[in-house]
Amino acid sequence: MPTITFLPSGRVCPVEEGTTILQASRAHQIGLSHCCGGRALCTTCRVIVQQGIDHLSDIEEHEYDMLELLHLGPSYRLGCQARIYGDVVVRIPD
Q1: 62/68 Cα distance (integer angstroms)
Q2: Beta-ladder partners of 12
Q3: Which domains does the chain have, with CATH numbers?
Q4: In whole angstroms, how far apart are CA 61 and each of 4, 14, 37, 68?
Q5: Of 8, 86, 93, 87, which is closest to residue 77 (Cα–Cα)?
Q6: 3-class state of residue 68 by DSSP
Q7: The dihedral sign for the CA sequence 93, 68, 22, 10
Q8: What is the pLDDT of residues 1-58, one digit of tens each?
């Protein structure tokens, strides 16, 4: 079972494969904003992937476009879109 580590808290949470980062944060009571309800419209659920980016689902065109609008680098993902398939470490920006 993969794990996701949320920084800065350092909480390590087990998740089922295919779970989104947002779903994992909600299941483990980690504060991750999601103003649009997880539909990739607001980008408030963005995270910085610090380890294991290759253990996440491929980025889809809509997510890429949303991140590009904000000029965010390749280590950023939307928590509502990125699915977990192996151990990852993510930082929730301030």
Answers
A1: 10
A2: 5
A3: 3-91 (3.10.20.30)
A4: 24, 28, 19, 10
A5: 93
A6: helix
A7: negative
A8: 999 999 999 999 999 999 999 999 999 999 888 888 777 878 999 999 999 999 999 9
Partners of 91 in the beta sheet?
Answer: 7, 48
Residue 52 CB partners (closer than 8 Å, separation 6+): 86, 87, 88, 89
Would you give the end-to-end CA distance of the chain in angstroms?
Answer: 29
From the CB of residue 64, how many other CB atoms can be counted at a distance below 10 Å?
Answer: 14
Q: What is the pTM of this model?
A: 0.94
- pLDDT score for 34: 82
Closest of 33, 23, 24 to residue 5, by C-alpha: 24
Neighbour-count burial of 81, counting CB atoms closer than 10 A to its CB (0-12 exposed, 13-18 middle, 19+ buried): buried
